[in-house]
Specification:
The complex is a heterodimer of chains A (about 300) and B (about 550).
Chain A: H1 2-28, H2 36-54, H3 57-81, H4 86-105, H5 130-134, H6 139-157, H7 159-169, H8 171-176, H9 181-207, H10 219-229, H11 234-257, H12 263-281, H13 285-291
Chain B: H1 2-14, H2 21-25, E1 28-39, E2 42-53, E3 57-61, H3 68-75, E4 83-88, E5 91-93, H4 98-104, E6 106-109, H5 121-128, H6 135-148, H7 164-177, E7 182-186, H8 194-209, E8 213-217, H9 221-227, E9 230-235, E10 238-243, H10 250-258, E11 277-286, E12 296-304, E13 308-312, H11 319-327, E14 337-339, E15 342-343, H12 349-354, E16 357-360, H13 375-383, E17 391-392, E18 395-396, H14 398-411, H15 428-440, E19 446-450, H16 458-473, E20 477-481, H17 485-491, E21 494-499, E22 502-503, E23 507-508, H18 514-530
Parallel strand pairs in B: 3-8, 3-9, 6-7, 7-8, 13-20, 13-21, 16-19, 19-20
Antiparallel strand pairs in B: 1-2, 1-4, 4-5, 9-10, 11-12, 11-14, 14-15, 17-18, 21-22, 21-23
Helix pairs in contact in B: 5-7, 6-7, 13-14, 15-16
The chains are: A mainly alpha (about 300), B alpha/beta (about 550).
Chain lengths: ~300, ~550
């Protein structure tokens, strides 16, 4: 029972974690992409379609990532090159993704999907209890963990991470130093798109291996909120995503058991719990302000 | 004024004997020829020649908008010229980017620092280096170099926590770590106390003696005379003169910069000692609004009818916070601020304006005026509630606003291409004249101005300063917050100094030497307020 709950927690948290860590990188570069939901749903439908047509889960994953990146490339072109309003463009991207995915996915409604194989790791997966829970996951879960560790390390320790933070903190200074602000931001936007696409692919290839219209059900928006509440720190995104996943799963079980609590209240619990915990851990205003990208959402036009 | 001139002469005596003679035999480091850069129809640089020798401190002089920044950005690779060539040590080069400039050996210390507040000192420096190495080894190099040049730095400190003087050190040390042959400095002393400036000059002289050239941009002529070997003067994007500044006078240099004589401010009569206090702050304390802001602690100052009180201080010492508290952008306890004897610390900006106060904030575009609004709308924004009759029964009297706009334009010499343009289309100096004129044309009883002539050319600055003095002599109380000591000496009857949110007692300008102000800026003001501050009526007399 407990193992099963833990497994579902991981499954519920992974798409949020992936989308949020991607958006974290985007926002750290100073760009606000509100199109996460749209990129996720495009990843979901493309991943499902590719896997279904080719019969290959790996190609499905790649397709999901590619779809997210393609949509984010469009966003990057609009906001970075044509300097459109980031908020409006992001919202439009979500609407575009939702509509386009419905169109593409029409042929796949009710088609049985392809569920990603669990990737057993030698020795580790055979450990008692820990083995099946932690090391008996599908490849995307491992990828999500690897991506978070890589992003956290890169932000804190590498030159690329330093450049990213610098561009998000003060794009005018970064430009004066000769850093290519737009290039850095475009790459960050692509990375965010890839992560959101992967998160969507996880929904349709592992979470519920089928295509249902609007199946991401607002997870992109939750991921966006997680980034802000986690004050742009990767490890806090992990806490937020897993907490949200855990409380979601627990409320399902509470409903099944039939606790005498209105279901509306129960379904609002994940949001409340996540907000409360993340507000508590980000009570250090100084740390929060230092990590807040000062140029978030501000357009940059190099003077040449 | 006497004391300041004496101080300047003392400084000149310490200066090394510069001379035009050294120029002939020296080796040319950088030669820019025929540099032209257009922005739209305006030529920011037109056929500019600039030759810098090795080991030379070369001044680049000019008013705001003369094209200094454009020229420097071209030399540093941040802009590409439309025409012209650059030779570096005799070889033609194309400076395609700041990185290319750095690899040639050109470093730059920016006027508005190119620092990242959320990053540490060593991270800031690492960003500008090709091969920074590990953070730890870089930290040690920073410590070593900064100590060697007398500019100690803590590599792990967060830039946001550091005062402006230290931030400039970071930029200088960042240049030094690149082993530069030429350092470009854009108005480096505008953010320093006189003492900090002296330290900077020592560093520059040492660099020059080691063979490193310095391109020194400034509009402070005394400094240029003191440390520079050669000067190139720009006006309207063209080179108008080259000279040895040590052989010139500040007056002759100013004439070359402006192309005309600059009027001195004439103060009619000294204010009367017994005049009533029109504006006062009493033990004004204010908690910081953000983690990076400065708290105000026990600020006490009185401004009488007929006098100009100036608050000197290095940027970021609480000037903005004090302005916000006095204008009502932030509320305080009622008695902490009084206008004409009425406690109004709890009142908002509009109420204080109705009491006869007027305010000119530091940032003219965005704070003093809405960039996308026409000038007439900008007039309405600060004067809708005053007794000018611009709003009647809820309707805007556009005719009256139009007349007012024309009058301000005329009296304060605001130049514009067409009638009633958007605020953003005006140049900085013109917009400042408009914003100051908008507030002054009301004949306010109390005027609070933050940085009245920041980034304004000499002619416009003289006009604004004269208007401030004239207003006070008509019986108004004028409080000027400024970082420009020359300006303060020109207009102030009494001077107070702000340092980390503490304000020293205001004393007669004649009794305040530059040295004293410098000491107060560097923290003496805090010690001063610890003792009971005697703000006496005698302070108004000369």
């Amino acid at each position: 029972m407990f193992e099963a709950i833990l497994l579902t927690v991981i499954t519920a948290a992974t798409p949020l974690l992936l989308a949020a860590i991607g958006e974290l990188v985007v926002e750290r570069s100073g760009v606000l992409n509100l199109g996460v939901e749209g990129m996720m749903i495009m990843g979901a439908v493309t991943g499902f379609a590719v896997a279904n047509l080719t019969g290959s889960g790996t190609l499905g994953i790649l397709g999901a990532i590619g779809a997210g990146m393609a949509l984010s490339a469009l966003f990057g072109f609009l906001v970075l090159v044509l300097v459109t309003n980031q908020v409006a463009t992001g919202l439009a991207l979500t609407l575009l993704g939702l509509g386009l995915s419905g169109l593409i996915g029409e042929a796949f409604i009710g088609v049985p999907g392809l569920k990603l194989e669990k990737l057993d790791l030698p020795f580790l997966s055979d450990l008692p209890f820990v083995g099946p829970v932690i090391f008996g996951q599908d490849p995307i879960v491992y990828m999500s963990v690897a991506i978070v560790i890589a992003v956290a390390y890169a932000l804190a320790r590498t030159r690329a991470g330093l450049v990213l933070r610098a561009v998000g903190d003060n794009h005018a200074s970064a430009h004066a130093l000769g850093l290519s602000v737009l290039k850095v931001r475009f790459l960050a936007v692509l990375f965010g798109g890839g992560c959101a696409g992967l998160a969507g692919g996880y929904m349709s290839l592992a979470y519920t291996p089928q295509w249902v219209e609007n199946m991401t059900a607002g997870r992109g928006w939750i991921a966006l909120a997680l980034v802000v509440f986690a004050s742009w720190l990767p490890w806090r995104v992990v806490i937020g995503a897993y907490l949200f996943g855990a409380v979601t799963v627990l409320t399902f079980h509470a409903q099944a058991v039939g606790a005498g609590v209105p279901s509306q209240l129960l379904s609002s619990l994940p949001y409340l719990a996540t907000i409360v915990v993340l507000v508590l851990i980000s009570s250090n205003r100084r740390l929060t302000l230092v990590n807040t990208p000062a140029c978030l959402g501000k357009p940059f036009v190099p003077d040449r | 004024m006497d004391s300041s001139t004496a101080a300047a002469e003392e400084g000149t005596n310490n200066a090394p004997p510069g001379g035009g003679g050294r120029r002939a035999g020296a080796e040319i480091l950088l030669a820019a020829r025929g540099i032209t850069k257009r922005f739209g129809s305006i030529a920011a640089n037109a056929d500019v020649d600039l030759v810098i020798n090795k080991g030379e401190i070369h001044a680049l002089l000019g008013e705001n908008g003369a094209g200094k920044s454009t020229l420097v950005k071209i030399l540093y690779g941040a802009l590409q010229p439309d025409a012209g060539s650059v030779e570096w040590q005799g070889k033609p080069v194309r400076v395609a980017s700041p990185a290319a400039a750095r690899s040639l050996g050109i470093g730059m210390v920016f006027q508005h620092f190119s620092l990242f507040e959320a990053l540490s000192v060593s991270e800031n420096i690492a960003l500008a280096l090709e091969k920074p190495g590990t953070m730890r080894s870089l930290g040690e190099r920073i410590r070593a170099v900064s100590r060697e040049y007398g500019l100690p730095l803590d590599p792990d400190a967060l830039v946001a926590d550091l005062p402006v003087g230290i931030r400039q050190r970071i930029e200088i040390v960042r240049c030094l770590l690149q082993a530069p042959r030429l350092i470009i400095m854009d108005e480096p002393t505008s953010v320093l106390t006189p003492q900090e400036a002296d330290e900077l000059f020592l560093t520059l002289k040492r660099l020059a003696s080691e063979g490193c050239a310095v391109l020194y941009i400034s509009h402070r002529l005394e400094e240029v005379q003191r440390i520079c070997h050669h000067a190139t003067i720009l006006r309207h994007g063209k080179v108008v003169a080259e000279c040895d500044p040590t052989l010139e006078t500040p007056g002759s240099l100013a004439r070359m910069m402006v192309g005309a004589e600059i009027a001195n401010v004439a103060a009619a009569s000294r204010p009367n000692e017994t005049s009533p206090v029109r504006l006062s702050a009493r033990s004004l304390s204010l908690a910081p609004a953000t983690p990076f802001a400065v708290p105000l602690t026990g600020v006490t100052v009185e401004v009488k009818a007929g006098e100009v009180v100036a608050i000197a201080g290095v940027a970021g010492n609480g000037q903005g916070e004090l302005f916000d508290a006095l204008t009502g952008e932030r509320r305080t306890a009622a008695g902490m601020v009084t206008i004409d004897g009425t406690p109004c610390g709890q009142e908002g900006i509009t109420r204080r304006r109705q009491r006869g106060a007027a305010f000119v904030p530091e940032e003219r575009l965005g704070h003093g005026a809405v960039p996308g609004f026409r000038l007439s709308s900008n007039i309405l924004l600060t004067r809708h509630a005053t007794d000018d009759g611009l709003v009647k029964g809820g309707f805007v009297a556009f005719g009256r606003i139009g007349e007012m706009e024309k009058r301000i334009k005329q009296v304060y010499d605001v130049r514009m291409s067409h009638d009633d343009p958007e605020a953003r289309s005006l140049s900085g100096g013109n917009l400042q004249k408009f914003v100051v004129g908008r507030e002054m044309s009301r004949n306010p009883g109390v005027l609070i101005v933050n940085q009245p002539t920041w980034g304004v050319d000499a002619g416009a600055a003289a006009l604004i300063r004269q208007a401030l003095v004239d207003l006070s002599r008509k019986g108004s109380a004028v409080l000027v917050i400024s970082q420009d000591l020359d300006e303060i000496y020109e207009i102030a009857d009494r001077i107070a100094v702000i340092s980390r949110g503490h304000l020293s007692p205001a004393e007669p300008a004649a009794a305040m030497t530059r040295e004293r102000i410098g000491l107060l800026m560097a923290g003496g003001a805090e010690a001063g307020t610890a003792a009971p501050a005697p703000v006496t009526a005698a302070a108004g007399g000369a």
